[in-house]
Amino acid sequence: MEYPQKDSLKILIIASEVAPFAKVGGLADVVASLPPAFKDLGCDVAVYLPAYRQILDYLDNNYEVILRDLPVQIGSKLLNTDILKAELAPGIPLFLARQNFLFDRPEIYQGKYGEYTDNLERYIFFSRSLPLFCSAAHIAPDIILANDWHTGLVMPLLNQGAMPRSAGVFTIHNMGYLGLVPPNRIDSIGLPEEYYRTDGLEFYGQMSLLKAGIIYSQAVVTVSPTYAEEIQTPTFGAGLDGLMRWVKESLYGVLNGVDYQDWNPATDPHLTANYSPGNLYGKRLCKKDILIKMGISKEFHDKPLIGMVTRLVEQKGCHLVAEAADALFDLGLSLVVLGSGDKDYERLFSNLKKKYPKRFGLKLGYDSILARQIIAGSDMFLIPSLYEPCGLTQMYSLKYGTIPIVRATGGLSDTIIDPHEDLPATGFKFHQASVPELMKAVTRALQTFKKKTDWPIMQETGMKCDFSWEYSAKKYLTIFEKAISIRRGMSK
Ligand code: ADP
Ligand code: GLC
Question: Are residues 179 and 207 in the same domain?
Fold first, then answer.
């Protein structure tokens, strides 16, 4: 790999998603937008991902094959991988592990019948390919930044001495996914026996690849300051809160940033009309457009519109919305939801659509353009998450003049200011994950919505908030320096 600037910090990011090529959630946005911020700070940065079918389709042959048939051990099997090189952004290489049996599939993590049953093997394979790729390509990054359970195994591999110059930093985007390997599949991990202990990968009789990333990295980052505190408690720690307290000296909460070149209502090409602070006429046109698109009946077009764009999973508080639906619609508002995920939640929302066909708009599936149109066209954006490591859609909503109504947890706590907390406020928060609390926050939002001066002030305050990456990327760099000094001499 070219690392053109001789003395610059060399960073290799390994992850399971990157926008826009292969996106399921916010991890993809982060993996796409953080590297340019590192590059702007003078670092050499590259990204490493599986060569999913979706990425290859997107690239349409715009890549070169730089290595062929690297043999990767997985359990008792050897599977080969090619390494491809493309470009994520100008000057930012995207390396891809091509193993068609594992990654040439219709979706990233799940098929028609739920999660792929070999996801563990797929990401163990991918993680194990990293040191082989680096060695064969003669790459020696200063920092390997791995993300979530999919790439946690990279950290013990570095610890085994695979890449003695490279310090490992592990970012937790979501503690709820532990990457658990049951006893009968431990062989596929392929580490020596001493790693399978309580102070290693062991987790209540199974092995956790997330824990592997936490224990064997030189620094652990999570994606907001509040979540860094929360995961040290039993409620949010997913069984690893004790470990998080134990590593707290090397645990950092760094808020994710937003790429405002991509997320900007003044330039977003997917909106019916563009707009900016001071002139929100275009936003009114976006609202009209989305009301029609989502099938909201005309009689409700003058009423407040709440939007949601979300993975339909327990974490996102979907059941609260379903339980609150009658009370919400009693307030005279309408609601539009774009989401995909658990079939049970899809059914729950589909039933709601049958009950409120005129004022509930539902689109099940993944649609990146519709997501932007909902964020732009709604008056308010609801995020009732049970937990939220960072959350990006509240920051996108702020930029698009759409007032967030959020549960006060994780990054939602850190990015939204409620009028009860401080002024100028940017949104509304509720603390307990309950229908009455949610309803109180929505009611407060509607009261402010009626005030024709307060509402635009709140919108404008949000639109001017700056969550760009520069500040957070600098924080990462100071963490990287510490990790490197630990790796090259001191103990954690
Ligand atoms: P999470 O990563 O937990 O899903 P985030 O708020 O960090 O939550 O990021 C979610 C990202 O995924 C946002 O960019 C959001 O717009 C997008 N997204 C979620 N669900 C959908 C969907 N059904 N269609 C299109 N985009 C979606
Ligand atoms: C995870 C979290 C979300 C976070 C995203 C990017 O999917 O659920 O809160 O914003 O990762 O870090």
Answer: yes
Contact 216, 168 (CB under 8 A): yes
User: Is 276 part of a structural domain of the chain?
Assistant: no
Mutation to probe ligand 1, out of 29, 308, 315 (largest number of atoms < 8 A from CB) = 29
pLDDT tens for each residue of 166-196: 999 999 999 999 999 999 999 999 999 999 9
* Same domain, residue pair 221 and 337: no
The pLDDT of residue 5 is above 60: no
Distance CA(230)–CA(224), nearest Å, equals 10
Distance 183 CA to ligand 1 centre (A): 33
Whether the per-residue pLDDT at 4 is higher than 60: the answer is no
Cα gap 479→413, rounded to integer Å: 23
Q: How many CB atoms lie within 10 A of CB 335?
A: 26
Entry pTM: 0.96
Q: How far is the CA of 1 from the centre of ligand 1 (A)?
A: 32
Tell me the residue range of the domain where 442 lies: 281-466
392 Cβ inside 6 Å of ligand 2: yes
> What's 217's domain CATH number?
3.40.50.2000
Nearest atom in ligand 2 to 388's CA:
9
On whether residue 272 sits in a domain, the answer given is no
φ, ψ of residue 302 in degrees (nearest 5): -90, 0
In-domain check, residue 53 = yes
Q: Whose CA is nearest to atom 22 of ligand 1?
A: 366
Give residue-wise pLDDT tens across range 240-258. 999 999 999 999 999 999 9
Does residue 265 lie in a domain region? no
Asked if residue 209 has pLDDT above 50, the reply is: yes
